[in-house]
Write a structure and sequence with these properties.
7 helices; mainly alpha; about 0% strand
């Protein structure tokens, strides 16, 4: 029986059945998009939702804060407490000044000083090399001389310098 069909008849039948299939899919699943594409607007009247059989029979639970829970309120383990994210930190006291110190100019200068001391230890530098390198740091951070934490920076320098620096020399670094 299959020998009676020609290739032309087979291809036409396949094309017609495929076309019917895709038209059915478009009309079933993409009806709104298809009619919108054709430019025909359907009258979309807002519809009221159908009544549900459970709407009238639902009891509203009255939750009052005066009644405790059935088993009581939960309790945190001993030694634990609830805090907000603003009050949480890893460094002792939290104040606006300490936050600004962590992200301000002073930490940048201290990092630059660490680089200077690393270079000095690598090339076995002396006080004169240190003063030359500090002139570059002073140019990089011109506002540091008027910073209220300049004492902390000078203390860092005196602690980490491989040679003795007097208080006058420390003051002259930033002028």
């Amino acid at each position: 029986m299959l020998q009676q069909f020609t290739w032309q008849q087979f291809l036409v039948a396949t094309l017609v059945l495929t076309l019917i299939w895709y038209v059915g899919v478009v009309l079933i699943f993409y009806r709104k998009e298809f009619f919108g594409l054709l430019g025909r607007k359907r009258n979309d009247v807002p519809r009221e939702s159908l009544p549900h059989r459970w709407e009238g029979k639902v009891d509203q639970l009255a939750v009052s804060e005066e009644q405790p829970e059935l088993m009581g309120a939960s309790k945190l383990p001993e030694g634990m407490s609830m805090t907000t994210t603003e009050a949480f930190g890893f460094s002792g006291e939290v104040s606006e000044d300490s936050k600004m110190e962590q992200i301000g100019l002073v930490p940048d200068v201290l990092e630059e000083l660490k680089v200077v001391f690393a270079k000095l230890s690598r090339v076995d530098g002396n006080k004169r090399d240190f003063m030359d390198m500090m002139s570059d740091v002073r140019e990089k951070f011109p506002k540091i001389a008027s910073n209220p934490n300049i004492g902390r920076i000078n203390e860092f320098i005196s602690d980490h310098a491989p040679f003795h620096l007097s208080a006058e020399e420390l003051e002259d670094i930033w002028d």
